[in-house]
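The protein record quoted in full:
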Amino acid sequence: MTANSSAGERIANDPYIFTLILHQCDRPTLSTFLRVDRQLFNEAGRILYHELDLDLNWGKGATYRTRSLSLGAGVAVEGSTSGYTGQTETKKTLLGHVRRVQCSERLPCSNPAFAAIFSLLPKLDLLRFWAHPLHQCDSSSGSDTPTGRHCHLHQLSSHKVVIDVMHNELQYATKFASITTTAEEVTVVLDYSIDFVMTAFRDPQGLRSHLDELKCPGRNTVVARWEPPVRPDFSNRSEEQIEDKIEHIIEPSTSFATTCIDLGMEVFYTAELNECSMEDPVFYNRVSLDVINARVRKKLQKKHGRAFEAPRLIGSSAYYLQLGRLDDFRRNEMDDIRARFHERLAWDRARAWAATEGGEEDLEDR
């Protein structure tokens, strides 16, 4: 580069500035840059293919096709029922840039194009997928999927694995133990509900077995997306009946958390139990994470000895958000968690103000 070089030439030859500029481009622009020259191909490809979001849909001839070139690593199965495209050096180079893979709803068990993709991917930073009974896959058997094919996800390895589990389908997640046990960090995200914890409460050994099978040697976390129960009707009920209702909610949640913590897993509820019934002071004051944590500590001390101190108890929404665990959820899901937390925080402040300044009748007006 000479002294007479233009500002544009100097910027183009500075890799740091050049990369910053490319990061400001949208995906269609980056896709266009792939075809300009080798330098732009490498730099734009590294940004464009950093995350592979396999948002699948049905194409012609009952074959999968990915939503676009940029999101599908260039694979297009346009109406073809045989073979796949993309076995080129260009494709291999781009796939070498992939560090994060996310699968939603349908796993690509039936499409040979994904076998080609996954066989070329390096070790990932993040693999996130849903465990679902329609996608029963086993690394030791290639014939237990609905299509009779082996699930290609088993070709992948990742530093961190996040598994979404729908309701009572935790047993299906264990089909992917070959992926989780070789990871350095595993997060199991549960659609947590009273129905789920009641099932787990009835079969604690089964729950323990499933979670233990999914553990990795490193950090293991269970994140429970709380689905609020119907608020109990406490009107015209005796104190004993109220206690029975509260116990119906607290004890299964306590047993579930105790099992996870006893296995060395961190546990987070992304919404506190009392969040669903803030307007009811009886329910609000008796059902909380503090109550459950006290019971969990008591159960663990009884099992391991009075001197036992649980290293990790249930974490609150506030602590979970402070950790910045953005990989555990998609962006819109994390935004929902933040919104619920701030709503609860505003309610707590309103209750405190009403108790000290305006009285409970003012709180009803709010």
Summary: The chain is about 45% helix and 15% strand. Strands lie at 51-54, 56-58, 64-66, 100-103, 124-131, 158-165, 185-192, 219-226, 266-269, 314-315. Residues 56-87, 136-149 have pLDDT under 50 and may be disordered. The first strand starts at residue 51 and ends at 54.
